[in-house]
Amino acid sequence: MIKGISTDSNKAHQSIAAREVEPNSSRWRVPASIAIGIGAGLGSLVTAIPRAYSYAANKPLHDRLEKAQAATLAQSLKIVLQGSERGRTSPSPIRPSVQALKIDLVQQGGLKTAPEKKQADYLAQGAVRIRYTIEKMQRDEFPRGGVQSLRSDLAALMNNPLYRKLKNADSAAINFLQYVAVKLIAVDANSVLFDFGKEFLGRSEKEEFSPQELADGMSAYLKKRSFSIDHGRLFYSAAHPNKTQRSLMSVLDPLGYDASVGNPTFSAHSFELGKKKMNFYYGPGPTGNPIFEHGVLPAYRKFGVFELRFNFQNTRDKAEALRVREMVRIADANSDVLKHAVLGFDTKMDMTKFDSVDSFFDAYIAFVKDGLREIRAKDVDNGIYISQEMLSIDQVDNALAKAREFCRVMSQNNSHWKQAMSQGPHGKEGMGKTMKLIADTCLSLSMLYRSFDEITPEMVERALDERLDRDLTAIRTSGACKQNIDRGVVGNIALRLFFRWASDASPLTNREACEIAGAVIGRAKIAEDRKIMKERYKILDDFLRFVGSAPRGVAQAHVLLRGYPASVSSGISQIL
After folding, report:
1. What is the pLDDT along the chain (576 residues), one digit of tens a residue?
2. Residue 475 in contact with residue 459, Cβ under 8 Å?
């Protein structure tokens, strides 16, 4: 029994179930246990149709993604496992035996006791088992549970005490498991997102998309009724009991909850400046996920790369605040390979208490800077945490000044702004949330640009070395809330668009628009078989329409952003 949960309902249930069948006039009551069984059966019948529909509708998308994952995982079979050639690609698969892997583990760890050697045997067998699973997937022989089954096996191995002890060692078995961990986030799903997004932009042959046209295409699909949370949480829960239970566990056991279960990570677009490149990947918040902390991060360390991560969780929510603090702990313990900032998507600040762009930013800038360097008690925390190492106060001021200027200029003679502001508190709140998104995106854009300064010539050289596996030497960035299907997607798309508009004034290409639509709609569908929550999506919709409705639209956004990189870093101006 979980402490704090009342047992009154359990006692009542037991009392009902224990009653004998008693005559009542000429009628008999149906025993409660039978009634419950009949009710459950009818419930299953009622939800069988939506479950079957959802399975059939989602299967092509899941199958394509799993095939892409399998192809990327197969690359881990041809990477040299240890020594001076570690990370180099081999023309043929490398297949060490269980015994060879065990002997190496014993030698690397200086293991002497029988229990330690037994653990070495467990890890060696696990590594070979995962290799065998990948080989089977190459032949389209997916295990029950698909790639998720392999991921669960890998997580169990990385929870092993001996693995944790040796995770930074140059061991063949340890390195192989870490190669697989990196490959799980490295799969390039852009073609999957593109094809999926094309479905929701009407298979348009348009070569270019304005922000409004992109918003129109996504909104038209999202307005249709479906088995989604916005169209009935009770019915969604009945049709998706396992997903509902997992959502409950994220509240009851915040740090034990692993959002990666049933929620695949995959790479998408990249951010590039000259020869420097940062690969973006979608995926949930990594707390509770041993593969990230004990697999991906040690691999980064071995290959001299790093990751920039944005956290969109809400520090005023008890469960999410615990995960935010845990993420800060992980980042502090791995500061050489992980850069982390908190940009809470939700806020306690009243988004309706402003009369102009300037009055909004006067309040929001003070709000952001109050407690910027710490995470305080949930009732007073502002939801923003950026360390001195990530951005100095001057750089924070610069980012917020750019956001203020952007909103001030873009709101002039802007039909969407005028219409929203005339709709009272509801419309004003929409514009307040839009300006908050723009401000937070300018902050994340600053940290992204600053991270390019951290990419050394040696990192660039390794990334371009064709003898090395490219995924192992890639520098990455990601942003997530709990699952990265609602809040995270909105923040990620805004960052992608700002980076694009800073360097290019042209409209979005058909491919870019379809990739974005595929991510906005596909992330929630892949992870939870639902649509992005409309209250979250509305902020992205307002953002797109706000930019698109300004005089000169994207061209004006480009004018405002093009000088921003140089104001963040002199090193970037040299690249550009």
Report:
1. 333 333 333 433 333 333 333 334 434 444 544 544 444 454 455 566 666 666 666 788 889 999 999 999 999 999 999 999 999 999 999 999 999 999 999 999 999 999 999 999 999 999 999 999 999 999 999 999 999 999 999 999 999 999 999 999 999 999 999 999 999 999 999 999 999 999 888 666 788 999 999 999 999 988 887 666 666 677 677 777 788 888 889 999 999 999 999 999 999 999 999 899 999 999 999 999 999 999 999 999 999 999 999 999 999 999 999 999 999 999 999 999 999 999 999 999 999 999 999 999 999 999 999 999 999 998 899 999 999 999 999 999 999 999 999 999 999 999 999 999 999 999 999 999 999 999 999 999 999 999 999 999 999 999 999 999 999 999 999 999 999 999 999 999 999 999 999 999 999 999 999 999 999 999 999 998 889 999 999 999 999 999 999 999 999 999 999 988 878 876 665 555
2. yes
Query: β-strand 476-480 against 276-282: which pairing, if any?
Result: parallel
User: Are the C-beta atoms of residues 70 and 138 closer than 8 Å to each other?
Assistant: yes
Residues 6+ apart with CB under 8 A from 27: none
H/E stretch holding 340: strand 338-343
Q: To the nearest 10°, the Cα dihedral for 286, 291, 293, 299?
A: -130
Beta strand 276-282 pairing with 307-311 = unpaired
End-to-end CA distance of the chain: 60
Tokens of 129: 């088992």
Give the C-alpha separation, 323 to 378, whole Å.
13
3 state DSSP class of 478: strand
Residue 268 — φ and ψ, nearest 5°? -135, -115
Q: Two tokens at 516?
A: 């974005």
* Residues β-bridged to residue 28: 23
CA dist., res. 100 & res. 157, Å (int): 18
Exposed, middle or buried, 207 (CB in 10 Å: 0-12/13-18/19+)? exposed
Q: 73 near 137, Cβ under 8 Å? A: yes
Q: Are 302 and 174 in contact (CB under 8 A)?
A: no
Rg (C-alpha) for the chain, rounded Å, is 26
Q: How far apart are CA 425 and CA 162, in angstroms?
A: 57
The closest alpha carbon to 284, from 151, 496, 482, belongs to: 482
CA 457 to chain centre: 29
Rounded Cα distance, 356 and 421, in Å: 9
* Residue 495 to residue 503: CA distance in whole angstroms: 13
Residue 348 carries which DSSP code? S
Report the DSSP beta bridge partners of residue 112.
none
Of 405, 479, 393, 389, give the one whose Cα is nearest residue 439.
Answer: 405
Nearest to 392 by CA among 479, 462, 438, 453: 453
